[in-house]
Write a structure and sequence with these properties.
The protein is an alpha/beta fold. It is about 45% helix and about 15% strand. The structure holds pyridoxal-5'-phosphate.
């Protein structure tokens, strides 16, 4: 399957090329040119997670990597469990939590980042590659953990000093080895600006083999289709679920729509946002009218310019998905999110704020005898302070976090000055 640049469809590349270059001409996103349902979906659903995911990704990548190599990528990337848990006893038990946070960085971003790391290590065998990325917290951890100890790959993560939680910092600034972290004495936007400037510097790009591993990389997106299949495989045979997804950049929900486009039975998708509600307003009014981003409790979703949304539009316009019936979007406030955390806790389910927000949108939107699945994108302990305040009790740390809690932060500190960063990168 060829990938085309959505902004300039005449640019067509293989999966391997798209992974390396990230963005196409004119900042265009890559996306499959044709999408047809896979053959024998019932048979596919009977397979185990790794075999099934290898088949799906082989199909979506046009067998750009040899089958054995792809199988290794998938096995090494997805080496942690996906869990599907029934939530609540009312409603005939028709609500399920799809837990995607059992990987090393305790967030669903591990699926995409780890798969991308495995692909890149094989595609770039021997060539020097530097992953340069900016993070407001979660992405840095997923990227650093994914590329840790990968031969030939150096990682540099920029983050705003003092603006990530102490626990988040421990998850990516204590690794050492091929992972370097820089605390920039400014905000996240400044970090992102420094990354952009670096990519505009031909000498840096060439000498270091720069790659940003950010969430618009097609490898990250494709990897995320696999857990939607896993959810349906675990539900009673013949169930066609409604998925509710907590959305920021809209990569996760795009992956669900993509899974449906290649044959996964999905009744519809709910894209839940926080008060940064550009998309729900767009779907209601047809007007794209982003407003300044506001800070919320679900900070991984504090985005008013969701960078994957052009892919949703592509699914509608090029691939003919009937978005009107398939996709609805609701904004949930912080107050509603905290209420949802408490309601879920009373039902015996501890959810982080992002996952609770998705549950709330599902609870509001589920109709008749529909079965619903809400995606749990972060481990509750990652947002311990918020949960402890909401629930007025202590939240225990999981072993992954206990293990890093006492480690030393290895970061370098730097003002937001491109010349300094450039010097640092070239030495
Ligand atoms: C990144 C993130 C999201 C948003 O996912 P998108 O693919 O950007 O829509 C939701 N929840 C958590 C915990 C995240 O880290």
């Amino acid at each position: 399957m060829k990938l085309i640049n959505i902004a300039h469809p005449e640019q067509s590349v293989s999966f391997a090329q798209a992974v390396v270059i990230g963005l196409g001409r004119g900042q265009g996103l890559f996306f499959p040119e044709h999408l047809r349902p896979m053959a024998n979906i019932p048979g596919l659903l009977e397979k185990d997670f790794i075999s099934r995911s290898t088949e799906i990704l082989g199909y979506l990548t046009g067998n750009s990597l040899p089958k054995d190599s792809l199988h290794d990528c998938v096995r090494q990337a997805f080496d942690f469990p996906v869990k599907l848990t029934r939530v609540g006893s009312g409603d005939g038990g028709r609500v399920h939590a799809l837990e995607l946070f059992h990987g090393p960085s305790l967030a669903f971003k591990d699926f995409g980042a780890r798969f991308m790391a495995q692909c890149l290590a094989r595609i770039n065998a021997g060539r020097r590659t530097t992953i340069l990325t900016a993070t407001s917290g979660d992405t840095g951890a997923a990227v650093a953990q994914s590329f840790y100890a990968q031969a030939g790959i150096d990682v540099v993560v920029l983050y705003p000093k003092g603006k990530v939680t102490p626990l988040q910092e421990k998850l990516f600034c204590t690794l050492g080895g091929n992972i370097r972290t820089i605390a920039i004495e400014d905000d996240f936007d400044a970090c992102q600006r420094l990354v952009k400037q670096s990519f505009d510097d031909p000498r840096l790009v060439k000498e270091l083999g720069l790659n940003s591993a950010n969430s618009i990389n097609i490898a990250r997106l494709l990897a995320q289709t696999c857990y939607y299949f896993e959810a349906v495989a675990r539900l009673p045979g013949g169930t066609v679920p409604v998925f509710s997804v907590p959305c920021g950049n809209f990569g996760n929900v795009t992956a669900g729509l993509l899974a449906h486009a290649i044959g996964l039975p999905v009744k519809r998708m709910i894209a839940a946002t926080n008060r940064n509600d550009t998309v729900p307003r767009y779907l209601r009014s047809g007007k794209w009218d982003p407003r300044p981003t506001v800070a919320t409790l679900t900070n991984a979703m504090d985005i008013s310019l969701p960078n994957n949304f052009p892919r949703v539009l592509e699914l509608e316009h090029r691939h003919g998905l009937a978005m009107k019936d398939l996709l609805t979007s609701f904004a949930i406030t912080d107050t509603q999110t905290l209420d949802a955390v408490r309601t879920l806790d009373a039902m015996g389910y501890l959810a982080d704020p992002h996952s609770a927000l998705a549950w709330k949108a599902l609870d509001d939107g589920l109709e008749g005898d529909e079965t619903g699945v809400f995606l749990c994108t972060a481990h509750p302990a990652k947002f311990r302070e918020t949960l402890e305040n909401a629930l007025e009790r202590r939240i225990p740390l999981p072993v992954e976090l206990q293990a890093v809690a006492d480690k030393e932060i290895l970061s370098t500190e730097m003002p937001a000055d491109f010349e300094l960063l450039r010097k640092y990168l070239l030495t």
